[in-house]
Structures are given as structure tokens and as C-alpha cells.
Amino acid sequence: MYSLSMVDAKDKRIAELERLLAAALEKIARLEAEIASLKKNSGNSSKPPSSDIVKPPKQSKGKGARKIGAQKGHTQHLRTPFDESQIDETIELKLAACPVCNGQLTPSGEPPKKHQQVELADKPFIVKEYQLHQYWCENCQCMHNAQLPKEVKQAVLFGPKLIALSGYLKGRCHMSYTTMQSFFSDALQICVSRGFLAKQVHKASLSLSKPYEELASRLPQEGYIRIDETGGKENGERRWTWCFRPLEFTVFCISPSRGSKVLEDHLGKDYEGTISCDFFGAYRKFARLSNAKLQLCWAHLIREVKFLAESSEKQVSDYGAGLLLEIGLMFKTIHRRGELLERTWQRRMAGHQQSILQASRHKVPSDKAAANLSKRFQDWQQEYFGFIESGLEPTNNTAEQSIRRVVIDRKVTQGTRSDWGNRWLERFWSVCATCEQKGKSVLQYMKSCVDSLVQGRAPPQIFDG
Description:
This protein has about 475 residues and is α/β, with parallel strands linked by helices. It has a domain of about 170 residues. About 50% of the residues lie in helices and about 10% in strands. Helix 3 crosses helix 18, helix 4 packs across helix 5 and helix 6 crosses helix 17.
């Protein structure tokens, strides 16, 4: 028989073991969550590719591996030759006799084959010296000096082309001022200080201020804008770079905020267009406060579904794999849109929508991420599937691609150190991306803007021509 003391001791031991078991289960759950978080990468979450510090080794494709270089059947792409106006010297190469038998040759009458070679000039710049003569005025009884032309006085040492080149090297090539200094010294034999180069970039920034304002003022009138944002630093302080990409131009904005206020400031509280974006809360809040509609990005969603499909828990991975399969079938139909009749495509897409929604509701595991994803499908159907009727893109990939230049610059330069540095970057990035969209030379457009600045004229409109 057990004594009362023995029963009490066993009860205490059971209680202690239950406490230890609860603590162990809590620790296991926490560790599993940490392991799952560590498994997140750019392929199964919204993390950028730069965060993939450790990547699995590439597996050999074996005997049938793709060879390096152009593949068999690849269409050859040849450079467009320089036109006659660009050729500085023509050298005629003729034969006096047959190179094989030394026999007499008769001209074929065919036009000669052409080979062009381009080379840097020994001195790829010109130097102008302005001599300001002095004169004595008998009437005033003082000396008078001839005055520099206004545009020369404004530009100082560098002319508009070199000012534009300085800005281009800083913004497009992500050069530090030390590297720019070396470039001017080694390539052009022009020795200048880093402080001087910073002033040239500042002038280039001023020349782009009006074009930037022109682009930013157009945003509220755009009916469809793809938007993305990425983090950075200004002198160690957190900053966010926003990318607004309508169909014909791009606007970048650097702000200390990642909130919906940035959207209000640039689009207005009465904005009625459609925003293509991820599921970040600032976009959803802005949509509630304004008349904006959302087209939520499927690329971001697919990464989250992939993360579920890679889970170590079978119920979660089965749920994710089932969803991933249905989404994959939908995108096969999306890519075949040009091959199908519109009504056939619409009918199939409606079927895919129903299949995906059904898969999102079927056997939802108790996992928190899976439950949240299932609820999101039900609550945000229109925002995800609206592209079927509207004809818009199902992903926000274009905005993500545009913002890559920001990420590259951040990695190379480690961010900015002043507010004017932020203004320079958002102006340059906006003008650069817009010129690319419109097929314009970025450097030539910058040169025109600097020209206008030093001559006191309005800059050329970026939408002209």
C-alpha cells in the first residue's frame, strides 16, 4: 500500500515533469520557428537575393550540360555600323597584283567591304582660355575688366559635358569621389580634387531638379502605378527608397518613412488609380484611406507558398505543394494568352481562380503561416485576381527590377551622408530610368539639362521627342 506521503511525492513529481515537458515543448516550437526563419531566402520569401548569404552548391548537370557561349541556332546580333557623319578618316586598301600568283587584277565593280575601328583621341577634351582685358576709364577714373560670358561664369572650370559626365560617373557607375578623381587623372589627364568633383555632382543635381518635379507631378494622374520600396541609410540613419513606376516613366523618392504618408504625399488622398504592390501594410492602409485599388503581387505570394511547401511538417508541406501546383497551372495559362481566344483564356482563368481558392481552403493545417495565407486568399480575392479582368500584370516584377539600381548603389557606396545626397540620387535615378524607358541617352539628356542650367534657361522636357 502507498502511504499518503508517497502519493504526495508522486503528485509533485508528476507536476514537475509536466512543467518540464511544457517548457521543452515551448522550446522545441521556438527552435522550429527559428529554423524555419533561417530557411527563408529570396526564393521562398520577400527577402532580397543579397540576403542569401549561404547558398546550396550548384549541382552538375552531367553529360548534357549547356555549353558556354552562343548556342546552336542562336540568332546573330551585329553592332550597327557608324554612319558617314561619324567617320573621321577613311583609308582605302587596294591590291596592286594577285596575292597568290602575282597576276593582273581587274576591279569587280562591287562596293568595297568595310571594317570600322574606333579609338580614343590622345586628348579627348579641349581647353578654352578666356583672357579678360583691363581698361582705364578717364571719365570714371578707374579700371574696368571685360566680363566672362554668363554660362562660363556659372560652369567655372568644367563645361556642361564634363559636369554631366561627373554626375553620370557618380550616379550610373556608382563611383566614389576617389575613383572619379582617379578616372579623370588617368583617362583624361585632368587633375582635380574630390571636393571639386562633389561640386560638379551638386550642379548636375540642380540641373535635374525641374525634370524631377515634372515627373513627380504626373503621378497623381496616372491610372496604373507599380510601387516598391527598399531600405537604406543616410549617415547611419534608416531611410527608405520608394519606386513609383507608371507605364511611361519612373519616380524615386527617398524618405525616412515607410508608411502610407509617403503614398499620400506623392499620389494624393483622392487617388483613384490601381497600385501594383506586395502585401505590405502601408499599401493596404492607403487603399482604405483613398479611392485606390490594389493589384497584389503574385510573385511575392508564390514565395510564401514555396516556403510552406518546403516545411518539415508534412501537413504544411502538402498544403503548400497543393497550392503551388494550382498556381503553376494558372501561370501556364497566363503565358499562353497570346495563343488562345480571349473568351477561352477568360474561361480558363476563372477556373484557375476557383481551383486556387478551393485549394487554399482545403485541409488548412494548424500552422500559423498557412492559416494566415488561407485567410488572405479569402479576404483579398479581388486584389489578387483582379488582373484577369483588368488586363494588368499579375506581378510587380517591373518595379522590383527598377529598384535593383538602388540596391546596387547601396551595396557599392554604403548609402548617403546628407539630405542633398538623397535629393541627388532620387533625381538621377528617376531621370535615368525614364530615359531608358523612352530610349533616350541618359548622358546626352543630362548634358542638355546642365547646358540649360548654366545659361539660365528652362531644362528640356523629358517627355519631348
